[in-house]
Specification:
The complex is a heterodimer of chains A (178) and B (161). Chain A is an all-alpha fold and 178 residues long. Chain A contains nine helices and no strands. With 161 residues, chain B is mainly α. Chain B is 67% helix and 5% strand. Classes of the chains: A mainly alpha (178), B mainly alpha (161).
Chain lengths: 178, 161
């Protein structure tokens, strides 16, 4: 994976993002802004599925209407995320919190695939029930747990210094040591 | 009174004659607080944005905007308070670094404006009597103010003072 990371971070776009003093903070700001928009849609859906909030609104209203906005939101978050990754791909690939974040994103995918047929495609069936069924509560609870973990893992990436010997270390950190 | 600026986070600060060790300066406190800060503001700002997008005709269109404000009100308040409280503790780790930074000051101005706006004009715009153009303008201003808060927060780290 490391040769790929080095190739990716040396593509003209990633090199530009890394070298420009403003591009990186702008991309990071967009990443975080989209996280707010996407995160709140996840949170609202999960709380509704758990029966903890928006209970006056039908489950299908919340789940169905937020499906496409959530997908668009995820594409926006992920696009900015990949660009952030591209600025220091090699360093990130060696970062334990980045690895954790990728695993958690994999879990989010599994979650989506598992609960798609069980909950999200069948939201209207739950409208008549007095309380969301347990499969909906599991979907909401696990989603909340996974996405909050992803946010925390993502923030923690920045606290790990690049390992000595990596391209990024040689480029940015090592010159300062002499 | 001489105030000595501490060269880096993790050291005690000298306030007058007292050496005060801030418990928030432990190695793990800052990242953990940041997680609370991020999850808190994401839920708060995103939930307010849900109402804004509704006013602009996107997202939860079958819902009444006034109901959305009412039904997300409690969690907006809780998550916003969490974000602010965590933010104050983050600030306390190195106040000089923040209040001397013009981006931080701009962020706080945006934040105060956004909060005041949210609990005044934003509330009015979701009432049934408000015109659609008015509601859309309010939604755009609200989104811009909150985006400004996020941008300010991110840029603090990138502007050297």
């Amino acid at each position: 994976m490391i040769p790929f990371a080095i190739w990716f971070q040396n593509t003209p776009l990633c090199a530009f993002l890394r070298d420009s003093p403003y591009a990186f903070p702008v991309i990071l700001t967009l990443h975080v802004t989209f996280i707010s928009l996407f995160g709140a849609m996840i949170f609202a859906t999960d709380f509704r599925l758990l029966g903890w909030g928006l209970t006056k609104h039908r489950i299908s209203d919340i789940v169905d209407q937020l499906r496409w906005p959530k997908r668009i939101g995820f594409v926006c978050v992920a696009t900015c995320g990949v660009l952030v990754l591209g600025t220091k791909a090699e360093e990130y690939f060696l970062n334990p919190f980045f690895k954790l974040k990728v695993v958690l994103l994999g879990l989010a995918l599994v979650h989506a695939l598992v609960f798609r047929g069980l909950v999200y495609n069948r939201a209207a069936e739950m409208d008549a029930l007095a309380e969301p069924p347990s499969r909906a509560k599991w979907a909401g609870g696990l989603s909340l747990l996974i996405w909050i973990s992803i946010a925390c893992a993502g923030r923690s990436i920045g606290y790990i210094y690049p390992p000595p010997g990596s391209h990024h270390f040689a480029l940015l950190v090592a010159p300062g040591l002499h | 009174m001489m105030i000595q600026l501490s060269p880096q986070r993790g050291r005690g600060k000298i306030h007058g004659m007292l050496l005060i060790e801030n418990p928030m300066n432990s190695e793990l406190a800052f990242p953990i607080l940041e997680c609370f800060h991020i999850v808190g503001f994401a839920i708060a700002i995103g939930s307010i944005a849900l109402v804004d997008f509704r006013l602009l005709g996107f997202g939860l269109r079958r819902q009444d905007p006034a109901d959305l404000v009412k039904d997300t009100g409690l969690w907006v308040l809780i998550s916003l308070s969490t974000a602010i409280f965590a933010g104050l503790l983050l600030y306390s780790t190195d106040p000089d670094k923040y209040y001397l930074n013009p981006i931080f000051v701009a962020k706080i101005v945006c934040l105060v404006l956004a909060i005041v706006f949210n609990y005044t004009l934003h509330r009015k715009a979701v009432r049934p009597g408000a015109s659609s153009a008015q509601a859309k303008a309010v939604a755009c201003i609200s989104l811009l103010l909150w985006a400004g808060v996020v941008a300010g927060g991110m840029f603090i780290a990138f502007i050297a003072v």
